Amino acid sequence: MGGDHRRLAGRAGPDRLNRIPEEEDVYEHIKKILMTSFNVAEEDFVEGATLDDLGLDSLDLVELSMQLETLGARVTDDEMVEAGRLDAVVALLESRLATTG
Q1: Which domain holds residue 89?
Q2: For the segment 51-98, what is each residue's pLDDT rounded down to a tens digit?
Q3: Which position among 35, 43, 60, 84 has the lowest Cβ density within 10 Å, counted as fewest Cβ atoms?
Q4: In which element (H, E) is residue 35 found?
Q5: CA angle, 45 as apex, 41 and 47 as ends, to 5°?
Q6: Cα dist. 7→4, 18, 32, 83 in Å?
């Protein structure tokens, strides 16, 4: 499966939902996605990091949005651009996950 995460990201149906492992929080899960699928370096994750700081372009945000949707909550690429910072995206996803059960 290796580097094929992007290709497998597709639309999330009930049978394709992933769950965040209990030992991880939302931030750690997104960080893992960014490091494995988008080659973001560990040292780039600093307090207040923007999506631009992490080297994510608009196509990356579309792909990230699709990967996050497999968790059961939708955060669009436009919402991520508006959020601007990684911590704001995490907060948005946490709130969506809380309302979807």
Answers
A1: 50-101
A2: 999 999 999 999 999 998 888 888 999 999 999 999 999 999 999 888
A3: 43
A4: helix 26-37
A5: 165
A6: 5, 16, 17, 25
Q: Is position 57 within any domain?
A: yes
Q: Could you tell me if residue 11 is inside a domain? A: no
What phi and psi values does residue 85 have, to the nearest 5 degrees? -110, 150
Does residue 79 lie within any of the structural domains? yes
Total domains present in the chain: 1
Closest by alpha carbon to 17, among 63, 62, 74? Answer: 74
Neighbours of 7 (CB within 10 A): 9
Residue 4 resides in a domain: no
